[in-house]
């Protein structure tokens, strides 16, 4: 299947799943599929700059990365419709709610690091996309914690994808500058 068809089939599945709960991007009225397509766009750009990059796999993972965490989608469903490899990647990108909250990110990063660099790239792309102006209801502590997490992601996934690592470093700096002004 060509990349365009893969993208279209995957985004339709993800949009349907996130749409079932009327999920929007926090702090906006935008449907959640906008976030997913932004992560996929980062992956498309990174693929052009990265040797031996499995774009089809990375696009599927990018578009599905929040389905286990935020929808009623099951691991088995992802496995059946997409593949075991895609389901395992999405599971690694999903925070484990049985782990104490303060340890969830490191737990997820540890699982991500056991998988291919495409999965690393999706996590980098996800945080790049999320480093926008924080929602107005976020406390200064939550904003600072989010930036600290971004630094942790950059450190833990160093060597995964230089293009996205550089983008994330710039976004972290822009986020810090934005937060100082507000």
UniProtKB/TrEMBL annotation:
Signal sequence coordinates: none
MF (Gene Ontology): guanosine-3',5'-bis(diphosphate) 3'-diphosphatase activity
InterPro entries: MESH1
Gene3D superfamilies, per database record: Hypothetical protein af1432 (1.10.3210.10)
Full protein name: Metal dependent phosphohydrolase
Organism encoding this protein: Spirosoma linguale (strain ATCC 33905 / DSM 74 / LMG 10896 / Claus 1)
